[in-house]
Amino acid sequence: MRWLIIGGILALVVTVYALVDLTVTDDRRVRRLNRVLWVVLIVVVPVFGPIAWLAWGKGPRADARPMAPDDDPSFSRSPDVTDEEADRRIAEIEAQLAALESEDFGPPPAPERAPDPEPRPKPHPPVVGPEDEADGDADGTGRRAPDDGDAARA
What we know:
The chain contains seven helices and no strands.
C-alpha cells in the first residue's frame, strides 16, 4: 500500500512537471502534436503522457530562437553601414553636440518670487491680575515656575 501512495505522488509530480514544461516551451520546439493535444495526452494518460512529452514532444534547443539580440550573429552584422560610414556619422553627431554646447543662450531667467505674506500680529501677553498672583503665577505667563513646588511654599 505504501508503494502505491509513493507511485501516485511520483506520477502527480511528473505530470505537473510535464505540464509546466509544456507551457514554458517555445512553440518552435513542440513536435508531433500541437500544444492542446499534448495537454490532453499528459492529463488523460498519467504516466505515459508526461514521459512521451519529455522523450518525443520537445524538439532540440537549436530550433529555438536566441533569447537576446546579442546572441544572434546576424543582428550585429548590417550590410548597409560600413565601418567608415559609422565613423563618419559619429563624427558628425559629435560636431553637432559640440556646437550645441558652445551656444550661449544668455543668463538664465530669474525665478519669480512669490509676494511676501502680510506679517501676523504678535499675540498680546496675558494680563496678570491680583488673582493670578495668588495662584503662584509670578512671571505672568500662566504657568508656575519650575522652582515653585509645594515644598517651596511650606
